[in-house]
Amino acid sequence: MRRELRLDGVGRRYGLRGPWVLRGVELGVPPGALVRVEGANGTGKSTLLRLLAGIDAPTEGRVTGRPRTAYVPERFPPALPFTAAQYLTHLGTVHGLSRRAAARAAGHWLERLGAAGYADTRLSRLSKGSSQKVAVAQALLAEPELLVLDEAWTGLDADARGELERAVAERTAVGGAVVFVDHDPRRLAGVPDAVYAVRDGSLHRRTGPAPVSAGPRVVVRVQGPAGAVLPADVHRTAASAEETGPGSHTLTVPASHSDVLLRTLLTARPPWHVVSVHAPEERR
């Protein structure tokens, strides 16, 4: 069973006498959680994400329950002596995949992110946007238990941004955790389980429910066998689920997560029948 990642009394500073960037951080990230981190530039958001990803060690306090983690940094180093496919295949083997499985995963993610045409291009010759697609792909290769995203959407085109949102939904739907920073307040708006702000070297949880109207939503009406229980992954993906009759449910899901929800329902055993999919404001 996956454990909760915990930071207890964690502080971080650089150098023996350097100022504290973070101090007294208390944070739990349970399996399946989606956590947003906010804060002004220079407040320590990236330092917090590096601590979560295990890139940096805390100066004080402790980190426990660390899962298998992948990280997309704010700045990806493109000047490496590999092609995109070579680099991703190498990283896949580092994550424990066989070389064949790593090459297959590399091709899969380059295709999904719209970068398959650059598979044989050296990293140093890629544009900033294409380099960012490789950075995202390397984090998703081995289906991490914790995905840490530091401004990962920056530089991506609209299609790739949508694919990354779907990848986030896929990770949390199967019980993986995702922690992200993004400058766009509309990114996955209304979806995170928790939102934290980094302020004055401390971490503060935003209180109150996330606004459910902050992002586009989709309403899905489904019908299953009488007495059937919705698959557990549906509850991880849907914002709400209402039973409207024997085997009948109305689900509300963030638009970015709708593909994952439908796939879960249609591949369940026995499969659920999708009656309708529509925007909340449509009249039925």
UniProtKB/TrEMBL annotation:
Protein name: ABC-transporter ATP-binding protein
Keyword NADP: no
Gene Ontology BP annotations: transmembrane transport
Database matches in PROSITE patterns: ABC_TRANSPORTER_2 (PS50893)
Organism expressing this protein natively: Streptomyces coelicolor (strain ATCC BAA-471 / A3(2) / M145)
InterPro entries: AAA+_ATPase, ABC_transporter-like_ATP-bd, ABC_Transporter_VariousFunc, P-loop_NTPase
Keywords for this protein: ATP-binding, Nucleotide-binding, Transport
Ranges of residues in domain ABC transporter: 5-225
Entry GO terms, CC: plasma membrane
Pfam families hit by this protein: ABC_tran
MF terms (GO), sorted A to Z: ATP binding; ATP hydrolysis activity; transmembrane transporter activity
Signal peptide residues on this chain, from the entry's feature table: none
